[in-house]
Design goal:
Number of domains: 4
Shape: globular
Largest sheet: 6 strands, antiparallel
Number of strands: 16
Length: 768
C-alpha cells in the first residue's frame, strides 16, 4: 500500500524538478501552474490506485503484489510528463505527443488490469487443493509417489482424481518441474452435464523449467472427477501440487503491458511526427543510420538461436550428423570419402538405393554411397568457407550451430545490401518506414531463421547457397551503378565468386543467376564505356566463375566419376532418388503445393503453423513433410497482386524494360524451380525456401513502389497503401515466428530458451 503513495509522489516530484532546467523551464508564472497541475495529478493517481487495489482485492483472486513497480513507474512517469510539459509553447508537436503518450499509458495500464484480466473477476474466492494422495495412476511404471507425497512421472500416463464434488471452480493450476524436455498435459472432467464421460476442457505443453501450468474450464454445477493426461514424457517430471480456483488468479503481466504500450506509442509517434511522409534519401545520414540500426536488430536476433553448452570438437571426434565436419575430416586425411566402414551386407546388395532392400542392413543414413565408399552429397561450400578456416585457426571443428549463425548473419547482410542497391537504382526515394519494414520482412521471408532453428545437416548448404546467390546479385547490380572502373571490376569478381558459392552449395538456385543477364547485357552494350573496360568487366566476372566451375567439376569427378554429378542420386534415403523424373503431369500439384497451400489454423497458441500436405494422386513416390505455399505469406501475396498495377506503369516508360525483365525472370524461375523440386525431391519447407529467397526480395521491391504509383491518382490511396503494405510485411514476420515456435523442442530456439512457448502464451493469451 505504501508504494501507491510514495511512487506517484516521487515520479511527479522528479518531473517537476526537471521543469526547472533551463531548456525545459516554462515561461513566467507557468511553473506555479504546472506545480498545481502536478499536485492534482498526484492526488488523482493515488486515488485511482487505491480504487483499483480495492476493486481487485474485492473481486479477484490475488497474490501479494498487485502492480509490479516497473510498469507502474513507467505509467506514472508518462502521465507526469504529459502534464508537466503541457504548457511549453515552443515544442508543440512534442508537447502533443507527450499528452497523447500520457493518455495511452493510463489506458494501457487500465486495459491490463480491467480487460486483460476480465476472466479473473468473481464474487466467489473459493479454492480447493488437488488431493495428490488420492490420484489413480493408470500405469504404475510410468508414475509413482515419492517420499514427499508428490508424484514423479517418467512416462505417458493418466492421473484421475475422483469424488471431488467441487462447486464453482473454473481454473486449475499445477506446479511441476523437471528437465527441459517438452511434454503435453491435458485436463478432462466429469461434471453435472456429463457425469459418466470425460470431457477434455484444456491442454497445454510445457518444459520442466516452467513450473506453473494453468487450465481454464467451465463446469456445469459440480465437478465430480478430474483427469490429467501426461504425454510425450521424455524425462522425469515431478508434480508437486495442484490448486483449483473459482477464477483465474490475477497476475499483472509486465511483458504484455510493455508490448501493448510500445506498439501504441510507436503508432502514435508515426502519426504525430508524420513518419509515414518521410522518404528515404541515400545521402541522408539519419536515414542510413535507421537502416543500419535495423540491420543490427536483425543480426541481434541470431543470438536467440545460439545453443548453449556446445563446443568445438577434435577432428576425429566429430558427430556423424555433422556431415560438413566429417567432410573436413576426410579432407585432412587426404581423400574425399568418409571414414566409414561399409558392412558386407550393404556391399552385397544389388541395388542399395532401394530403401525397401535395406531392411536389416546397417548403413549410414543420408550419405551418398558409391563404389563402396560413403560421400557427403551436400554442398562443400560450408566446408571451404567456414569449417576449413576455423580448423586452420583453432585446430578444432566448429559446431553446426556456429556455422549456421555465421551463415545467417552473412545472408542478412547480403539481403540488406541487395535491397538497398536495388532501391538506389530503381526506387530512389521510397517511404523510409516502409523500407525498414520491407527489409525486416525480406529477412524473415527468405526463411533463413527457419534453417537456423532446425540447426541440422540439411539446411546449412541451402542457406550457404542463399548467401552465394544474394552476394552474386548484390554485387552484380552494384557493379552496374558504380562509376569507377576498379570498383566495377572488383564487384563483378565478387559476383562471380557468389555464383561459385551457389553452385557449390545449392545448384538449384543457379536459375536465379539469370537475373544478372539483363543488367550485364546493358553493361556490355553501354556506349559510354570503352570496349576495353567492357571486356575486362566480363573477364572479371567470368574468370572466378569458370575457375570455380572447374574446381566443382573436378571434385565431382573424383567422387562420382562424372563432372556434373553431385551425388544426389546415390544418397541413402527414403527412396531411390534416381527414379525421380520431371513430369508435366505433376506440374499442377507442384504449383498448388509450393504456392497455394495454406497454413494451418490451430486452436491453441500461436494459432498458426505449417500445414500437412495431402497429395492423393501423386503418381509415384513423393517425399512429403509439413509445409506452406509461398502465397500464404501476406507480403508475397500482396507483392504478386501488385504486379499488374506496376506493369501498366512500367509499359509507359522506356527505361523500365529491365524491371519487367527482372520480374518475369523471377516469377518464371520460381515456378520452374518449384516444379523441379517437387518432381525431383518432394515437398518440405526446406525446398520451399529455394523460391522464397527471391520472392521475398522481389515482393519487397514491388511493394515499395506501389505508393508512388498510386499517388498521382489519389494521395489518400497512396497513404492507405502504405499502411496495408506495412501490415502485410508484419504479417509475414509473425507467420514465420509462428513456424519457429511450433517446430518442436529439438530445434535451436527451444534448446536456448526452453520456456519460450509458455512465456509467450501466458503473455499473449489472456482470455483463458
Amino acid at each position: 500500500m505504501l508504494l501507491y503513495f510514495l511512487l506517484p509522489i516521487l515520479c511527479n516530484a522528479l518531473l517537476l524538478a526537471a521543469c526547472k532546467l533551463p531548456k525545459l523551464a516554462p515561461a513566467g508564472s507557468e511553473f506555479s501552474k504546472t506545480a498545481v497541475r502536478m499536485g492534482i495529478l498526484t492526488a488523482g493517481e493515488i486515488l485511482v490506485l487505491l480504487l483499483l487495489h480495492a476493486l481487485i482485492r474485492g473481486f479477484q483472486i490475488t497474490g501479494s503484489h498487485l502492480f509490479p513497480p516497473l510498469p507502474l513507474a513507467i505509467t506514472l512517469l508518462l502521465l507526469g510528463a504529459g502534464t508537466a510539459f503541457s504548457g511549453k509553447q515552443n515544442t508543440a508537436v512534442l508537447r502533443k505527443y507527450l499528452q497523447k503518450a500520457a493518455c495511452i499509458a493510463g489506458c494501457v495500464f487500465l486495459l491490463e488490469v480491467l480487460v486483460f484480466h476480465i476472466t479473473s473477476f468473481t464474487t466467489q474466492k473459493t479454492k480447493e487443493e488437488l488431493p495428490l494422495s488420492t490420484a489413480e495412476i493408470s500405469d504404475e511404471e510410468a508414475a509413482s509417489f515419492n517420499d514427499k507425497g508428490e508424484i514423479t512421472i517418467t512416462g505417458n500416463c493418466t492421473l484421475t482424481f475422483s469424488d471431488l464434488d467441487w462447486d464453482e471452480l473454473h481454473c486449475v493450476r499445477l506446479h511441476a518441474d523437471g528437465k527441459d524436455k517438452m511434454y503435453q498435459v491435458s485436463l478432462s472432467m466429469k461434471d453435472n452435464n456429463l457425469t459418466q464421460r470425460f470431457e477434455k476442457t484444456a491442454q497445454t505443453q510445457a518444459t520442466g523449467s516452467y513450473d506453473t501450468l494453468q487450465f481454464a474450464m467451465q463446469p456445469y454445477e459440480k465437478i465430480h472427477v478430474l483427469q490429467l493426461q501426461f504425454e510425450n514424457i521424455d524425462a522425469p517430471i515431478t508434480l508437486h501440487s495442484g490448486t483449483a480456483y473459482a477464477a483465474i488468479p490475477f497476475a499483472f503481466s509486465t511483458g504484455r503491458f510493455l508490448l501493448v504500450l510500445l506498439i501504441a506509442l510507436g503508432l502514435t509517434a508515426c502519426k504525430q511526427f508524420s513518419v509515414w511522409e518521410i522518404h528515404y534519401q541515400a545521402k541522408n545520414w539519419k536515414h542510413n543510420l535507421a537502416v543500419l540500426m535495423t540491420l543490427f536488430g536483425c543480426l541481434a536476433c541470431i543470438s536467440a538461436f545460439i545453443v548453449p553448452d556446445q563446443k568445438p570438437t577434435d577432428i576425429h571426434s566429430v558427430d556423424i550428423s555433422n556431415v560438413y565436419g566429417k567432410t573436413l575430416e576426410a579432407w585432412t586425411d587426404g581423400h574425399s570419402y568418409m571414414n566409414f566402414d561399409v558392412t558386407p551386407e550393404l556391399a552385397e546388395l544389388e541395388n542399395p538405393y532401394d530403401n525397401s532392400n535395406r531392411d536389416g542392413v546397417s548403413y549410414n543414413w543420408d550419405y551418398a554411397y558409391y563404389n563402396e565408399h560413403y560421400y557427403c552429397y551436400f554442398g562443400c561450400a560450408p566446408v571451404v568457407l567456414i569449417y576449413l578456416p576455423f580448423y586452420a585457426i583453432t585446430g578444432k571443428v566448429p559446431t553446426l550451430n556456429f556455422a549456421y549463425c555465421i551463415t545467417v548473419a552473412a545472408i542478412i547482410i547480403a539481403i540488406f545490401g541487395l535491397i538497398m542497391t536495388l532501391v538506389r537504382r530503381y526506387d530512389k526515394q521510397p517511404p523510409l518506414l516502409l523500407l525498414l519494414f520491407g527489409l525486416v520482412s525480406a529477412v524473415a521471408g527468405c526463411g533463413a531463421f527457419v534453417g537456423l532453428n532446425y540447426n541440422d545437416r540439411y539446411y546449412l548448404c541451402l542457406l550457404m547457397g542463399m548467401f552465394g546467390l544474394l552476394l552474386a546479385l548484390w554485387t552484380g547490380f552494384a557493379a552496374v551503378s558504380v562509376k569507377k572502373s576498379w570498383k566495377r571490376f572488383a564487384l563483378l569478381a565478387v559476383s562471380g565468386i557468389g555464383v561459385v558459392i551457389t553452385a557449390a552449395s545449392r545448384p538449384n538456385l543457379l536459375v536465379y543467376v539469370l537475373l544478372l543477364v539483363p543488367i550485364f547485357l546493358h553493361l556490355l552494350f553501354r556506349k559510354d564505356l570503352r570496349l576495353q573496360n567492357r571486356l575486362i568487366s566480363a573477364g572479371c566476372f567470368l574468370l572466378p566463375t569458370l575457375v570455380g566451375a572447374a574446381a566443382i567439376m573436378w571434385y565431382n569427378q573424383i567422387r562420382f566419376d562424372s563432372p556434373l554429378q553431385f551425388g544426389a542420386i546415390y544418397q541413402m534415403t527414403v527412396d531411390n532418388t534416381a527414379a525421380n523424373r520431371i513430369s508435366l503431369a505433376r506440374f499442377p500439384a507442384a504449383f498448388a503445393a509450393y504456392f497455394l497451400h495454406p497454413m494451418e489454423l490451430m486452436d491453441d497458441f500461436p494459432f498458426l503453423k505449417d500445414n500437412a500436405v495431402l497429395v492423393p494422386n501423386r503418381m509415384m513416390y513423393l517425399f512429403v513433410e509439413r509445409s506452406f505455399g509461398a502465397l500464404a505469406m501476406p507480403s508475397v501475396l500482396l507483392g504478386v497482386l501488385s504486379i499488374p498495377l506496376l506493369w501498366k506503369k512500367w509499359k509507359q516508360r522506356d527505361d523500365c524494360r529491365i524491371r519487367r525483365a527482372l520480374v518475369l525472370i523471377t516469377v518464371i524461375g520460381a515456378v520452374l524451380l518449384a516444379w523441379v523440386d517437387y518432381c525431383m525431391a518432394g515437398i518440405t519447407i526446406r525446398y520451399l525456401l529455394d523460391i522464397m529467397v527471391v520472392l521475398s526480395v522481389m515482393s519487397t521491391m514491388l511493394l515499395l513502389q506501389v505508393p508512388a504509383v498510386l499517388k498521382p491518382y489519389s494521395a489518400n490511396a497512396a497513404q492507405i497503401s502504405q499502411k496495408v503494405i506495412a501490415l502485410a510485411m508484419t504479417g509475414t514476420v509473425l507467420a514465420y515466428f509462428c513456424i519457429l515456435i511450433t517446430s518442436g523442442d529439438g530445434v535451436a530456439l527451444y534448446k536456448a530458451h526452453p520456456t519460450i512457448w509458455n512465456v509467450l502464451k501466458d503473455t499473449l493469451v489472456f482470455w483463458r
